[in-house]
Amino acid sequence: MKKQSGFTLIELVVVMVILGILAAVALPKFVDMSTQARMAKMNGGLGSVKSAAALIHAQWLAAGSPTATAAGTTIKYEGGTLDVFSDMAYGYPNGTSIVTVAGLDSSYVASTSATSATVTDTTKTTCQFVYTAPTATGGAPTYTTSGISNTNC
Asked: Are 52 and 98 in contact (CB under 8 A)?
């Protein structure tokens, strides 16, 4: 007699049921990845803004902490210069210039003013962070990150 090899119908059905159960358990994990990706992107942008502010502040300190009493004094950084009078606030980039200094690309939308910059994800406007320039000598910028969360992104 010839012996046939292969899978029985019951074995195939059992394997398909197991694969179905695994897919049902794993699918929700992959669906939520877009939110996690947006949060990671916004945290990356926030890190870039923080680094840029620290870099400019270090350059300002190295230049002797020039005051913003007259236009013309500049702070150089890789990619450009900032005018201490119009582009900075107490040794840090102001809200208008921080986006340029940080090098944020077109995947971010920035609403800026002289005192702050609200940086938003292009695909979900509630996913955002806010940079606020210092308002007094010796102050530091503040970063509001409440918009980077599972509910907002």
From this structure: yes
Instruction: Tell me the pTM.
Output: 0.79
3-state secondary structure 72-127: CCEEEECCEEEECCCCEECCEECHHHHHHHHCCCCCEEEEECCCEEEEEECCCCCC
Contact 74, 83 (CB under 8 A): yes
Question: What is the pLDDT confidence band of residue 33, given thresholds at 50, 70 and 90?
Answer: confident
Q: Do residues 111 and 120 touch, judged by C-beta distance below 8 A?
A: yes
Give 81's strand partners: 76
106: left (phi over 0), alpha (psi -120 to 50) or beta: alpha
CA distance 31 to 25: 11
Q: Cα–Cα distance between 93 and 142 in angstroms, integer? A: 12
Q: CA 29, 153, 104, 55 torsion: positive or negative?
A: negative
Q: If residue 25 lies in a helix (H) or strand (E), which one and from where to where?
A: helix 9-31
